[in-house]
Amino acid sequence: AQTVTQSQPEMSVQEAETVTLSCTYDTSESDYYLFWYKQPPSRQMILVIRQEAYKQQNATENRFSVNFQKAAKSFSLKISDSQLGDAAMYFCAYHGLNSGYALNFGKGTSLLVTP
Amino acid sequence: GAGVSQSPSNKVTEKGKDVELRCDPISGHTALYWYRQRLGQGLEFLIYFQGNSAPDKSGLPSDRFSAERTGESVSTLTIQRTQQEDSAVYLCASSFRNQPQHFGDGTRLSIL
Q1: Å from A18 to nearest chain B CA?
Q2: A81-96: average pLDDT
Q3: Residues of B in contact with A104 (CB under 8 A)
Q4: Which residue in B31, B42, B105 is closest to A107 by CB distance?
Q5: Torsions phi, psi of B37, nearest 5?
Q6: Comparing C-alpha atoms, which of B99, B6, B11, B53 is closest to residue A52?
Q7: Residue B49 and residue B30 in contact, taking contact as beta carbons nearer than 8 Å
Q8: pLDDT for B97
Q9: Which residues, other chains included, contact A67 with Cβ-Cβ below 8 Å and sequence gap of 6+?
Q10: Do residues B49 and B57 touch, judged by C-beta distance below 8 A?
């Protein structure tokens, strides 16, 4: 079974600064997707960024970028120019193309953004 | 609607009662998923539908849990004889083929 580990239960960043959230995963598959989802207090899971494992280039989405290290099975999220609206729970998730369709989630990192 | 819709938003019920949770996926999305999120935890997969069929029910925690989907649209998750450990947020998601899953706002279930 695939496992996703987020080792930082809580992180804090000042507005306009940069923060990196860590995620590691364990899998024997070669074809998979990785995701970062944001969950504000409204409960809705919002897709932040997606990375296909076969792509070497790191995905970017405006202020959000990832550092995907396939050999190390590491998938960190960098948030640049942090904004108050970035405060939320962030979940790392894995989707194996040959192991069903469910997303395997980490336990999440709570991000606090201070003025 | 434009997004995944879940109802009710909140449900409080007594231990032992049955509950039904509803999910309306995004129109045209063939895949539908149910997840459970306990307080302070990540999401646990419950069941996956492709069309009206459920090829993967591996996450259902007990035979008290069941789900169905009709018309390749609406899905209902039913929990019979609820227990306090069933208290959680139940999230539904839908997707088209291998595209990312889009989530609803969830139903917060509280068992007294």
Answers
A1: 24
A2: 95
A3: 45
A4: B42
A5: -125, 105
A6: B99
A7: no
A8: 77
A9: A20, A58, A74, A75, A76, A78
A10: no
